[in-house]
Amino acid sequence: MEIDYQAIGIRVRRLRKEKGLTQQVLAEQAGVEPSNISHIERGATKLSLPTLVCLANALGTTVDGLLCDSLPQARQPFLGEIAGLLADCDHRELKIITSTLRALRMSLREEG
Length: 112
Description:
- By secondary structure, the chain is mainly α.
- It is about 70% helix and about 0% strand.
- It is elongated.
- GO terms for molecular function: DNA binding; DNA-binding transcription factor activity.
C-alpha cells in the first residue's frame, strides 16, 4: 500500500493557510523543524506516524483528515457502493445518471 505524500502535503499546506499560520509557527506547534514543513508540503519527505499525529493536532484535524484519499484503497468503498447502486438500472437510467454525474463532477472541480 502506497501513501501519497504529495496529497498529504497539499492538505497540510491548505490547512496551514486556512489557519493563517506560517511554516515557522506550524513547525513550532508541531515540534518539528521549519524545513521539515516545507519538505512535507512539497511531498518531498516521508512522514513518521508521530510527526503525522503532531501535525494533525497542530492543524486542528485528525490523522484521517490528513490521510484522506492519500491511500488508493480509500476510494474502493465508494466505487463499490456506486457499482451496487447502478447494478439494477436500465439503459435510460444509466444514461441520465451518467450525464448528471459528469455535470456534478465538472461543477465540483470548478469550485476547487
